Amino acid sequence: MPETSAAHFYDELADDYHLIYANWDASVRRQGDVLDGLMGQDHAAVLDCSCGIGTQAIGLALRGHRVTGTDLSPRAAARAAREAARRKVSLRTAAADMRRLPFPDSRFDTVVCADNSLPHLLTEQDVHAALAEMRRVLRPAGLLLLSTRPYDDLLRDRPASTPPQVHRAADGGERTVTFQLWHWHEDGEHYDLEHFQLLSAGGEWRVKVRRTVYWALGHERLAAFVTDAGFAEPEWRMPQETGFFQPLLVARAGE
């Protein structure tokens, strides 16, 4: 598996992903609450097609939804299942590619693809394939909730790095420093990402570096892709409006 592939990146990150957050449990509940509010439906059948270790999927399960989580990373999906069981909520998980979802047509009320997952797909063909699959497994008028980084802003500035985030474990022990380096391609849209995690324990620091590639899809362009895939009236909702940590594209499957 190539070192920069999304599956390898998240397999390597699965055990430490929660350390990105100051309080992962609080983030799980907060994100689940926001997505639940946008859904406006109780006990919905939800597919989180990029579930990672379960941040959004567990949050929605805690709100009473019937959630299935898939992820390209088998290790991340397996951890999501363990974390859900630890919290005594039901979450079915599987390793699957969002371009080839292993579900029948019209199976779900809502599909979630959050946390900048879709931009791991680096060509129009792959993005179209994934969005077509999300549309296929949604019931008529089903809801798509898709979040990315704020790429309209990032494409203007093309930053070379993110500010470091410093967190300390709840017991006051281990500290974690996380930051990213971005290396933009000549096309000005794709970028290589190096994800650094510095972990302290017993007075010593360990450094972990994972690498992957993204496509910085601007809002208008991604909304056009969503429309082409058979969704109606895609609308971007900003963090200051929703309380979600990233811009959210909200759309309905066409009848």
From TrEMBL:
GO terms for molecular function: methyltransferase activity. The keyword Methyltransferase applies. The keyword Transferase applies. One of its GO terms (biological process) is methylation. InterPro entries: Methyltransf_25, Methyltransf_Superfamily, SAM-dependent_MTases_sf. Keywords: Methyltransferase, Transferase. It comes from the Bacteria. Residues 46-142 form the Methyltransferase domain. CDD domains: AdoMet_MTases. Pfam families: Methyltransf_25. PANTHER family: METHYLTRANSFERASE, N6-ADENOSINE-METHYLTRANSFERASE TMT1A. This is Class I SAM-dependent methyltransferase. It comes from Streptomyces lannensis.
